[in-house]
């Protein structure tokens, strides 16, 4: 019968292995993967691809702010020099950011926004269920039906009739606040 001998690696070997694995993970996540993600857009006609590892567009924006007092100076220069420029692609950490310059692309994005973006329900977790299903937070057909209901009531003529009432309430609130403020100031000066 043979006994299997297993040699336990030293502590130093384990630490070096962990450091190497973490380094590879960081290298892949923050440098290699973003390169491929950004340069996938090179194929898109009218795309400007800018890859700066880790800091990405933040470095360019900071430089533009310091030298020209405008964060978007370099973007504006690119748009002015290349009228066929449709979008800009850059990275930050391990994410890719896309800036749309072409009005047609912007319009298409907003028309199909519900297909590209999903509102994260965790952000609105503290809200009452009724508020979550309100006009601000819902999308799609529910939004259209609620918008139709609201727009039938809140149209320009309807709102215009309430301007005198709004002005009167605002004036009363200002007078009440001014009186309260004067009273508080007089109490503070007495003490």
The fraction of residues assigned to DSSP E strands is: 5-15%
Report strand order across the widest sheet. 1-2-3
The secondary-structure class comes to mainly alpha
**What is the alpha-carbon Rg in Å?**
29 Å
The percent range for helix content is 55-70%
Number of beta strands: 3
Q: What is the H/E string? A: HEHHEEHHHHHH
Outline? extended
Give the count of helical stretches. Answer: 9
Unreliable spans:
none
Report on this structure:
This protein has 2 domains: 100 residues, no CATH class; 61 residues, no CATH class. With 191 residues, the protein is mainly alpha-helical. It is built from 9 helices and 3 strands; from the N terminus they run αβααββαααααα. The longest helix has 29 residues. It starts with 10 loop residues before the first helix and ends with a helix. A 3-stranded mixed β-sheet has the order 1-2-3. The radius of gyration is 29 Å and the shape is extended. β2 and β3 form a beta hairpin. The model has no long low-confidence stretch (mean pLDDT 82). 60% of the residues lie in helices and 8% in strands.
Observed structural traits:
191 residues; mainly alpha; 2 domains; 3-stranded mixed beta sheet; 9 helices; 60% helix; extended
Write the layout of secondary structure elements.
Blueprint: H1 11-39, E1 47-50, H2 57-68, H3 73-81, E2 87-92, E3 95-100, H4 103-111, H5 113-116, H6 129-132, H7 140-153, H8 156-161, H9 163-190
Parallel strand pairs: 1-2
Antiparallel strand pairs: 2-3
Task: Summarize the entry for a quick read.
The protein is mainly alpha-helical and 191 residues long. It has 2 domains: 17-116, no CATH class; 118-178, no CATH class. Helix content is 60%, strand content 8%.
